[in-house]
Predict the structure.
Amino acid sequence: MSSTSATWLSPFGVTDEPSSASSCQAPMPKADRWIWTAAMALMALGTVMVLSSSVMLAEKRYDAPGFFWKRQLIWWGLATLLMLGFSRFDYRRLKKFAPPLLLVGLISLVAVLFAPPVNNAHRWIPLGWFNLQPFEAFRLAMIVYTAAFLAKRGEEIVDLRQWLPLVVVLVIASGLLILEPEFSGVLTTWAIIGIMLIAAGARWRHLLPAVVIAGLAAVILVFGFGYKRARVDDWKNGLTSTGGSYQVQQSKIALGSGGLLGKGLGNGRSKMLYLPEPHTDFILASVGEELGLVGMTGVLLAFAVLVFRGWKVASRAPDRFGYLLVMGLGGSLLVNAGLNAAVVTGLSPATGLPLPFVSYGGSSLLCTAVAWGIVLNVSRFRTASW
């Protein structure tokens, strides 16, 4: 093989093929194999579980047993291409796009308020056969903007006044999300930005008052909206009795009946219209029922691999922007997956958050794939220290 080579598309790095000297270019460093493998495994499992858990619902609602699965196959293919593409897109170029990306995200949060409501909530913008959930794209844009914002300020972040522009953006976005209403989006966004502030070196004496204020605001919002308070009451009843929300009850039954090894793929009973929407927010309950504790453990281990390898990538990022970007994207996955698992097992009130990479839905899957494509790209530039 010639000493000169061209770089061809490959999820882990490069495939060397002979080329002329005029088209010679340096091989692209390899991306993190563990992250790629864990992400693809979760997406593959999600596609299978969407098929298994949604057959009855799809047949009843659309007279087409494979309705949700066929769509998820499309999302799976697009997500794979996006993750592969962004793994080869130089993340450092995102820094200059951070402000316009954030502006587009905020505009989308305004636009969704004028979209037709679904279950008394304005969370989706209908685009033909695809319903766009703007919050997913906004959260990704917010992480990119925050990473660029904090990286630019560097050590100045210890000064509380340096936070003000970021706080203003968060307050505006939170107000728009509350109008949808999307309370879980508000809480998770603040949690993610908090993780990034800690990673950037913000002082705890500044962070703790902000946490207290955010907690009080959350309590006021929850008890100021009747249906949110009802969710909290249902959750408390479910902790101490056989009461609680119907969906959480059925989720616990599904998990408990799965045992160690599960009932077998396709043999679950919760999908027989017992567990509402078993292919979306509560798909982990379907995994537990059909694949048992072993299957659930495998899913949680895959998320643990992503979070741990993401942390390793962040710690070896070549610059502060890459470090903060990966910490934010990894923190987002940790918060979302953790909250979803807590809801499914009855440890938290229902939030409406999907399980990343696994739950049915295009907006969540595509944005998550883009996020971890970016993490893969940062991993290509890893160094011992920065």
Remarks:
- Residues 33-380 form one domain.
- The beta strands are 6-7, 16-17, 125-127, 130-132.
